[in-house]
Amino acid sequence: MLKVTNNLVPIIHKEQFEDEATSFLGKYYPEALQAPMALPILEIAKARMGLTVLTQSLTEDLRAFGQMCFTGGLAEIYDKDEDEYREIKIKGGTMIIDPDTFFQRNIGCLNNTIAHECFHWHRHRNYHFMQNILDGKQSVACRCPVEAKDERFNEKWTDKDWMEWQASGIAPKILLPRETFGVMVNQYLKQSKNNPFIAAELMPPKQWVIDQLADFYKVSKISVRIRLDELGISLK
Predict the structure, then answer these.
(1) What span, in angstroms and rounded, lies between the C-alpha atoms of 204 and 69?
(2) Are 162 and 154 in contact (CB under 8 A)?
(3) What is the pLDDT of residue 188?
(4) What's the structural domain count of the chain?
(5) DSSP at 80
(6) 211, 212, 216, 221 alpha-carbon torsion, rounded to 10°
(7) Is there a single domain that holds both residue 26 and residue 66?
(8) Per-residue pLDDT tens digits for 178-199
(9) CB 57 within 8 A of CB 99
């Protein structure tokens, strides 16, 4: 069983992130541990985790991609038509995704945001439930900023800082499971040898493989590059 702090924040070290991603998939979508696939993360959120997913602007300048509402009550959104912030009534277990996460970024950013919020619900809801009881708040939510802290941050982290760091580090590993990622890497490496553009030196083979992986998994190219480095996979 995962250890927690007195405030019920899970104690998850960076070297445990891979196991956490595997544990998440084993619970909610074990199929992804058996064969490579573009993880249907939205389906997982709705059908397998029982979450409600809403598409609403959260800020006027996309300062936050998503928000996980752990308890029912009122949640603040940005109304583009009226150019103002207002509150909407939501129930507990509601994920709010800013549509500009897709329109101004890409499908990879959208999927990563959903995975991020799913992990918050998976591991961090007990902390927020306790805060709701202690503070007597009508609604407890976790709004996820575009730029999350990383391990280089040297000031004193709050409970929320730790949880954001965990969700940010584990979400990409959920979308690109170590158990099957290498299978697709090898497949595209083999295909690259027969690619006429690569043969004609019009395209670097490494970049072509990264492009194919990003398209297959519906993630960003940056996520693929980072995952390759994390797993020690060299593209030659």
Answers:
(1) 44
(2) no
(3) 95
(4) 2
(5) T
(6) -20
(7) yes
(8) 999 999 999 999 998 888 878 8
(9) yes
**Does residue 184 sit in the same domain as residue 169?**
no
User: What number of other Cβ atoms are within 10 A of residue 29's Cβ?
Assistant: 20
User: Looking up tokens 């194919």, which residue turns up?
Assistant: 212
How far apart CA 187 and CA 54 sit, in angstroms, is 37
- Strands 94-97 and 52-55, how do they pair? parallel
Per DSSP, the residues of 162-184 read HHHHHHHHHHHHHHS-HHHHHHH
* 110 plus 197 within the same structural domain: no
Give the integer Cα–Cα distance in Å for 142 and 107. 22
6 domain-assigned: no
Q: Looking at the DSSP assignment, which residues form a beta bridge with residue 145?
A: 64
Q: What is the mean pLDDT of each run of 10 residues along the chain (236 residues)?
A: 88 96 98 98 98 96 93 92 94 95 89 97 94 74 69 71 94 97 95 85 88 97 96 88
Q: Across the beta sheet with 141-145, what order do the strands follow? A: 52-55, 94-97, 64-69, 141-145
**Neighbour tally for 174: CB within 10 Å:** 29
Pick from 135, 131, 134, 169: nearest CA to 149: 169
What's the pLDDT at 55?
A: 96
Closest CA to 144 of 22, 59, 31: 59
Same domain, 88 and 193: no
Residue 5, Cβ neighbours under 10 Å: how many?
11
Name which of 177, 133, 164, 154 is nearest 7 in CA terms: 133
Task: Return the HEC string of 103-163.
Answer: HHHCHHHHHHHHHHHHHHHHHHHHHHHHHHHHHCCCCCEEEEECCCCCCCCCCCCCHHHHH
> Distance between CA atoms of 215 and 219, rounded to whole angstroms?
7
